[in-house]
Structures are given as C-alpha cells and as structure tokens.
Amino acid sequence: MDEVFALHLLRRLLMMLAEYRPHHDHEGLVCPRCGKRTVVLHGDSTYVCLDQQCGFRHDVSGNGGGPGGFIAAFFGVIFLFALL
Fold it and tell me: Which phi and psi angles does 39 have, rounded to 5°?
C-alpha cells in the first residue's frame, strides 16, 4: 500500500511540474492585457491576442525557466524515498 501511495505522489509531482497550457473553451481565452476573448495559440507554444492595438504575446515553451523545476523534482524524489 505504501508503494502505491508513493507512486501516486510521484505521479502528482510530475503532473505539477509538467508544462502548463491554458485550456481552450468555445468562447476563447481572455487576454490579460486588454480583457477581450481574443487570445489564440500561434504555433506550438506562443499565445497571441488578435486585437492589433493590444499586441499581447506570451511564449509557454518553458525555455529559460531556470533550475527551479529541477530542484523541486530532486527534493520531491528525496521525499518519496524517505517515505519508503
């Protein structure tokens, strides 16, 4: 039972560390800059606002995120081994 719990915790940790991408709905995504529902996915990892006056652009590729994710994963694995 403890191994199942540890695997469940590891799975949740990996899901939290996974790259976040906003969910799409039928109404569109709200732009944080102009407040309109005009944000769309452009390419694989860039969200842009279709309002030309706004110019909002956000890249969610995860590049340049720093070592924070690795450190959190390292301590998460250490924690899981301590539970076993």
Answer: -90, 130
